[in-house]
Structures are given as structure tokens and as C-alpha cells.
Design goal:
This protein has 596 residues and is an alpha/beta fold. Helix content is 35%, strand content 11%. The chain has 20 helices and 18 strands. It has helices at residues 14-21, 26-41, 51-66, 96-113, 132-136, 177-182, 200-203, 217-227, 240-252, 282-291, 308-317, 334-343, 360-369, 386-392, 415-425, 442-452, 469-477, 498-508, 525-534, 551-560; strands at residues 149-151, 158-160, 166-167, 174-175, 206-209, 271-274, 297-300, 323-327, 349-353, 375-379, 401-403, 431-433, 458-460, 487-489, 514-516, 540-542, 566-568, 586-591. The protein starts with 13 loop residues before the first helix and ends in a 5-residue tail after the last strand.
Length: 596
């Protein structure tokens, strides 16, 4: 089908419109070409063309020569049959008027280049032929390769193309570096670095909210003392509570040294607590015992430098010691522990954490030499096993505090050994911590704790994955006649849900002051609402990573629990910056800013 009979027309460019208004159409162009060819064949026929026609012919010939060779169209063949007459034209010299007109057309094309050309959607071979004239003037030639020679369109000087070479504006052509600078553009200017987006970790501000109030005079004094602790000569009679606050402040930046530790020593001290003694060497720890000979209760955290010489010095210098609590005595060997137990037969509390050299023989010497032991903590002891439990059995009837959490291997204590131990020592227990033992199952609840440990006030069974929701629920429902729990930690037990929560609240909710159900991801919103309703005496609550916790739940806790001081909501995605607050209550784990 001939294109002449096709009445569908695409959009026309500005140049096509200009040529049509000037009377230059494909038909007139073809006629003039044929006439010119006829005149060249018969030169004696006289002048067959007028100056005006010559000027127009030259304009169109120049337009044909400047179009890209790969366009596929020839402007003489628009709306003509498929077999146009191939004729060659002779290039003529342009007149000044023709040059001016061509320059005006190039300027107009440069203005239109910034906009999307109307013919952009018609770039295939079957497009409307009337758009060919506009495509004929499109400057789609690639930039010349680096190292080639080009002529500057402004100064007409030849230059070498580099990666800094800039195209002329208006096109076509390129500018040398001096001409590019004179036009107001710096070819050597580096592009501005793109603005980097802040990573999600920086955009999210996870903050532990705590209401800021005007500090009290005592807190200001404690801050000043801790800041200038090396210049203080004596703390004087400031009270046990303030002394403890100063010790905590020094532990925050680990600034307790052998020199300023003297401020806490006194021959009349019966109780001493230091929260970070990392900087105290073995001689300094021996000095502690010499300057506090009447100590009855000693607690030292992060005492990793303590060794056998320290234990020997304490055995000789602290004869009245009744309770010792140590965190991290890694270097003390088994013979030193045994000597210490022999020197303190009146020891009533022995609480250690992270002591890899404490073995079963040390346990035997402890029970043998300290028959009045009431508190025992063997937390994160690497050698803990069923043999230790056999040595603890003689303490039955007097042991009130027992912590066997997180042994060296999670299955170090068997289910049967734990049940047997509770049968011997459970009657007097008030605190029991078996966290981190994978062999703690529902059987331990029903055959160990339920029949034998009925005086418990504090129970911790965190990270015991064998416990089931139905088993825990049934345990609390049938735990009749036993004392109500004040502290309960069942965190990181992902199988526990609504049944367990409802049963424990019904059993001990009125007496609970601390509750930790962190990681109960399946607990429902309705079950969570029972916490503020059935446990109004709560002081600390951890509901981290419970998926149904939201702002209104926190609001209800703050309103119904007047004594609450701390609420942890880590990992609760429904909590946002609009979470309600209350003066004097720390709400920890609120995501203060959303992630974009």
C-alpha cells in the first residue's frame, strides 16, 4: 500500500511546519529536481530557473546533505512511491541569504533540543514520513573519541579532543578549552558529589526514655565528687546510700583506682560494695582486706585480677566475713578456694559468677567447712555437673537461695538430678534460678518444684526451651497452698503464650513486683491486658519482643500500677514516639524516630 494513500499523520516538528508554510513541500521539491535535471541536459534552452528558485534549491540540497546518513529517509521522496528516481545533485555555493537562513534554523533547533521532540515516539522505519524532516536535523552523533582532532566551531582552530571537551551551545560541534572557558563554563570543574543519604541505622534513634528533671543537690554533689575523685582527700560521714551512689558513678567510666579506692575504706566498715575493680591489682585487693578488717559482707564486680595471693590474704585479714559475692574471679585456682573455705567456717553466703576453675572438690570443701551456708550461687561455672548437685544435698533445710543458671554446657544438669536435688533442698528455698538449663522440662515443675519448693518467692526459668505453654499453665493452676511469687522471670521461652500468662497472673498477680516475659512472641493483646489488671503492685516489667504490645498497653500499665518504676519494651514494633510517659518511670526501648 502506498504511503500516499495513508491519511494518518503523526505530529509535525517546528521545522516541518516552517517548510510547509514557506511553500516547500515534498511535491515541489521533486518537481524542482526534475526541472533542474532537465535544464542541465538542455543548456541551450535558456534560463529555466530564476534566482529565487536557485536559492530555495540550494537550501533544500544543504538540508539533505546535513542529515545523518543512517536515517533511512530522503526528504525528496516523502509521499512518493517506493521507487523514487535516484538522481545526484551538484553542490552549489551558498549565498549570504541562504547562510543566514540556515544559521537561523540551527538556532531554532537548539532551542527545541531541550524539550522532548514530538517525533520521539515514532522512531521506527514505519513512522509518519512527515516527521522525517525534523529527524533530519537531530544531532544524535556520538562524541568524537579522545585523542582525535576537531575544529572549534567558534575560533575555527584545530584542537585535540579530551574527556573535558565540551559540546557547543547551540550545537552542532565542539569547543576548544579556551572558548569553553570564555563562554562561562569550566570544563575542568569536577561535578558536585551526590548527597549521601543517611543509613537506616542513623535515621533511627532508639532511645531509652527517662524523664529529665532538675537534679537534686545530692546528685550534683555526687557528680562533682566522682569527677574530681582524685582530688578528694576524704569522703567523711556522707552515709551508706550516698557512698553507694558514688561507687556506681565511678563504675560508669571505670575510674576506680588503687589511690581513690582508699576513700571507701574504713576499719569500721561491715559492708563494702564496689561495682568495677578492674583497675585494682592483687596488691590493691590485699590492701582492701587489711584496711577493712571487720567486713562481714563483701561484693566485688569485675574482679578479674584476683588471684591466689588475694584469697590467702583475705583468709588471714577478714576473719568475720559472712558473705562474699564475686563476679569474674577467673584466676583463682581450686587449692586457693579450699584454703579460703577452711579459714571461714562461718560463711553463710557464697555467690560467684564466671569461675572456670571452681571444681567439684571445691564444692565438697565448701559444704564440709561451711555448714551454715544459706545462699549459694554457681552461675556460669564451666565445670558444673550432676556431681555438684550431690554435694549440695546436705544443705537441705537451710538453703534459701540457690542459683545454678547457665552452666558451661546447657545440658550439664540432667532432669533427674535436678528433681532429686529439689527433693532434698527445696523445702527451705525462697529463690531458685535454673535459667539456661535445657533439661528443665515440665517434669521438673510437677515433680520437683510443685511438691518440694512451696516457699518460693522468686523463680527464674529463663531460656528453658523445653517448657510448654500448657505445662506452665497447669503448674500454676495446681500450685495451691504455696507462697505467692513476688519475682518471676520466664523470658526467652518462645513457646509460652496466653495460657501460661493467664495462669501465673491468677496465681501470683496480686503479689508480683517484678515480671519478665521478654520474648513471648505469641502472647495476644487480650492476655497482655491482664497484666495491669491483675498485677497492680508491679515495679519492674519487661515485655520486650512481645508483638502485641502497643502505646495503649503502656498507658494502662502506667495508670493501673502506681509503684511501677521501669518498663522495658525493646523490640515492640507497635510502640512509637507517642508512647505515654510518667514522671519517675523509665520506659526503655522506645523507637523515637521512624525509618524512612
Amino acid at each position: 500500500m502506498s504511503r500516499r494513500n495513508n491519511n494518518v499523520r503523526g505530529p509535525s516538528s517546528a521545522l516541518t511546519e516552517f517548510l510547509r508554510e514557506s511553500g516547500i513541500t515534498p511535491t515541489t521539491i521533486a518537481r524542482r529536481v526534475q526541472l533542474r535535471q532537465a535544464n542541465e541536459a538542455q543548456p541551450a534552452a535558456g534560463p529555466s530557473t530564476q534566482p529565487q528558485e536557485d536559492q530555495e534549491d540550494v537550501e533544500m540540497e544543504d538540508a539533505q546533505q546535513t542529515r545523518p546518513a543512517g536515517d533511512g529517509y530522503q526528504s525528496d521522496n516523502l509521499d512518493e512511491p517506493e521507487d523514487p528516481p535516484p538522481t545526484a545533485t551538484r553542490k552549489r555555493k551558498l549565498t549570504k541569504a541562504a547562510e543566514a537562513k540556515l544559521k537561523a534554523k540551527e538556532t531554532e533547533k537548539a532551542k527545541k533540543k531541550a524539550k522532548k521532540d514530538d517525533d520521539g515516539d515514532y522512531e521506527d522505519e514505519d513512522e509518519d514520513p512527515y516527521s522525517a524532516l525534523s529527524k533530519m536535523w537531530k544531532d544524535d552523533l556520538p562524541k568524537p573519541p579522545v585523542g582525535s582532532f576537531e575544529t572549534c566551531v567558534r575560533c575555527q582552530k584545530q584542537f585535540t579532543v579530551t574527556k573535558y571537551t565540551m559540546a557547543a551551545n547551540p550545537p552542532p560541534g565542539y569547543l576548544c578549552h579556551p572558548c569553553a572557558k570564555s563562554s562561562g563554563s569550566d570544563p575542568f570543574k569536577e561535578p558536585a558529589a551526590p548527597r549521601k543519604r543517611k543509613p537506616a541505622a542513623e535515621r533511627r534513634n532508639v532511645a531509652s526514655y527517662e524523664e529529665r528533671r532538675l537534679p537534686s543537690l545530692a546528685s550534683i554533689c555526687i557528680e562533682v565528687i566522682s569527677k574530681h575523685i582524685d582530688d578528694v582527700e576524704a569522703l567523711g560521714d556522707i552515709g551508706t546510700m550516698n557512698m553507694d551512689e558514688i561507687a556506681k558513678a565511678l563504675a560508669k567510666n571505670r575510674s576506680l583506682t588503687a589511690d581513690n579506692a582508699m576513700l571507701f575504706y574504713n576499719a569500721e566498715n561491715e559492708r563494702l560494695t564496689l561495682y568495677d575493680v578492674t583497675n585494682l591489682t592483687p596488691p590493691a585487693l590485699c590492701t582492701l582486706a587489711s584496711l577493712n578488717p571487720n567486713l562481714r559482707d563483701l561484693r566485688l564486680d569485675f574482679c578479674g585480677r584476683m588471684d591466689d595471693t588475694v584469697m590467702s590474704a583475705w583468709g588471714a585479714s577478714l576473719p568475720q566475713l559472712k558473705r562474699v559475692e564475686l563476679l569474674g574471679p577467673f584466676l583463682v585456682r581450686a587449692p586457693a578456694w579450699q584454703t579460703f573455705f577452711q579459714a571461714h567456717p562461718g560463711l553463710e553466703g557464697f555467690l560467684i559468677t564466671q569461675s572456670p576453675r571452681f571444681d567439684v572438690e571445691c564444692m565438697r570443701m565448701l559444704v564440709q567447712n561451711c555448714p551454715n551456708l544459706h545462699e549459694l550461687r554457681l552461675k556460669e561455672v564451666g565445670k558444673l555437673s550432676d556431681e555438684f548437685l550431690e554435694q549440695i544435698k546436705p544443705l537441705g533445710g537451710q538453703l534459701t537461695y540457690l542459683d545454678l543458671s547457665y552452666p558451661g554446657t546447657a545440658d550439664a544438669l540432667s532432669e533427674s538430678a535436678l528433681i532429686d536435688l529439689l527433693a532434698h533442698v527445696g523445702s527451705s528455698l525462697e529463690h531458685l534460678d535454673l535459667s539456661g538449663n535445657t533439661n528443665v522440662t515440665d517434669a521438673v515443675l510437677f515433680r520437683g518444684i510443685k511438691p518440694h519448693a512451696r516457699a518460693l518467692k522468686s523463680l527464674a526459668l529463663a531460656n528453658t526451651p523445653e517448657l510448654t505453654d500448657a505445662g506452665v499453665a497447669e503448674f500454676f493452676e495446681t500450685y495451691d497452698g504455696a507462697a505467692r511469687l513476688a519475682t518471676l522471670d520466664l523470658s526467652r521461652n518462645h513457646e509460652l503464650a496466653d495460657a501460661a500468662l493467664g495462669a501465673l497472673l491468677a496465681h501470683s498477680g496480686a503479689e508480683l513486683t517484678e515480671l519478665n516475659i521478654n520474648g513471648w512472641k505469641a502472647v495476644s493483646e487480650d492476655a497482655l491486658k491482664g497484666i495491669p489488671r491483675h498485677a497492680p503492685a508491679l515495679r519492674r516489667l519487661d515485655v520486650g519482643f512481645c508483638r502485641e504490645v502497643h502505646n495503649f498497653f503502656v498507658k494502662e500499665v502506667l495508670e493501673r500500677c502506681p509503684d511501677v518504676r521501669e518498663v522495658k519494651v525493646w523490640g515492640c514494633q507497635r510502640i512509637n514516639e507517642h508512647c505515654p510517659r510518667k514522671r519517675g518511670v523509665s520506659v526503655l526501648g522506645i523507637e523515637m524516630a521512624p525509618i524512612y
